[in-house]
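User: Sequence in, structure out. Go.
Assistant: Echoing your sequence, followed by the structure tokens.
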Amino acid sequence: MNVQGNTVGSIIEKISLSRTHYHILIIAALGFLFDSFDTYIVSYAMPLIRQEWQINPVINGMLASAGTWGMFLGAMLWGPISDRYGRKIGFIGTILGFGLITGLTALSQSPFEFGLFRFFTGMCIGGAIPVTTALVSEYAAARYRGRFVSMLTLLWPFGLLLAAFASLHLVTEHGWRILFILGTIPALLAIVAGFKLPESPRWLATQGRASDARRVLIKLGAKEEDVSNLADEKLAEKVPIGVLLTPMYRKRFLLTAGYYFFGYFGYYGFAMWIPTILATVYGLSLAKTFTFGLIGAAGAILARATAFYTVEKFGRKQLFYVGYGLGGVAALLFGLLKDPAYAMVGVFVIFYLCEQGGAGTVVYTAELYPSKVRATATAWSTGAGRISSATSPILFGYLMANHMYYGVFIAMALFMWIAVALVFFLGVETKGKSLEDVGAA
């Protein structure tokens, strides 16, 4: 084994951002955008679905969370697939899958069929974000990595915005199925990715494919003299299924799975229920409910833009403190609002704060694990969040059905504050550090 040459990691640290970096970023960010759109169209479709099929609040919550249960299973499957067969395979498979199955959802004729299609859609969506995050984090030097990955999260609220915009202008005239027809567009992105997206050089190196890694590094902007002396790297060993529970990773997995579980429970239960809350508690029309969705999307976009600026200036941990810490306070205040005008402000504030916490989960997680388990760790941590975001709409539905409205916001605050506590006590700051420096090479 040649230990004298440059490693993939050391070469990446020398490379400035190139056109190839931006091509990768655009493709990956569009994946986030479409993932977000597909996730949120369910919440905007539910008021009409509830009327069409005459379902109660608990069934409403179960249908809203069906896709999320699929996301949990998908995260469990697609992470190991990506670690074994490559980030590119994982990205294309997840994007193509959820695009095609979303289109089939428009054909649903019963709550059972709808829930089944959403479950299988979720299996693909569940792998898309962690696989994409793991992929993108492996291309950029430490000085760019935080904003490179946070740019992905900036596109997430635009998916929410598009879902709200499409609902406002199309659903009232064409019905809820039009949203799922539009959800087939991501399948085209998978085709583009097949031609334009290079494989991760870090992953290639762990597979003993040094020549392929060299080609990608040159495409990224590396110098010939650096890659010609590329060191042979230790081949990735077959990773046992319980590797994240071993002493080497246990503490970090408790941290990442924990903040995904508790943060998502608090925020995404609210995000899935807010259209129905506005329609039932505040008596707003369908059109006004969708308008509130646009306001929430505006808050989310501003939040991700704020995170893009602060992530390299103040670090990763502050995103949790500001996002979920203050978000819990905002939730308790929102539950006391009676005037729809104040509720409009409340929706904006909650989305603005909590989306910063969401940005933190995406940027921070991929930086804490080495390449051989990065996709698996990111996907399984996200999977913990999928469990909570699947159960929280059902719990919130139970609270709503039993006239315990304020309990929704107490639960939001408590769960988000637990996520903050985990970051405070178990988290290590990764701002400005290479993956080698934080033990995640």
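User: And one key feature?
Assistant: The mean pLDDT is 85.
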